[in-house]
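Researcher: Re-running this chain for the archive, since the previous output was lost when a drive failed. Same request as before.
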Amino acid sequence: MTFVLLKETNNKKYLIFKSNIMNTNQLKGKVEQLQGDAKIWLGQKTNNPKMEIEGKLDIANGKLIEQKGNAMEQYEKAKKIMESRTEEVQNKALLKWDKLKNEDVKEFDKSFEKFANKLKEKYNHTQEEANSQIREFMNQF
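Model: Regenerated structure tokens:
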């Protein structure tokens, strides 16, 4: 996706095109800022201070919208990392406890207690032994 920035140099405004993949809020924020720049420019040319103020408000609002988009992007990246990490933990758990099935290991995601119960059931562990093994296992991460 391509977006546009308005740049001012020596009292001349230039449109700059950059290529970047953005989420909707990032794009909306950039567009809002661009509209604000246009209002400020038009307000200066028509001697309309109200339009200039509207332009400044549009720029501020656009920056907030863009920041929201940036935060959402960071959240999505962190979520993907956590999901891949979850798979890694599940795969290592299957290697460590070979009597468990995929469904059993997925319980690990939902509840420590449920997973401990699976260990007790499959390996005849006490609650304390199951908890100890899980803590030891999780310490590697």
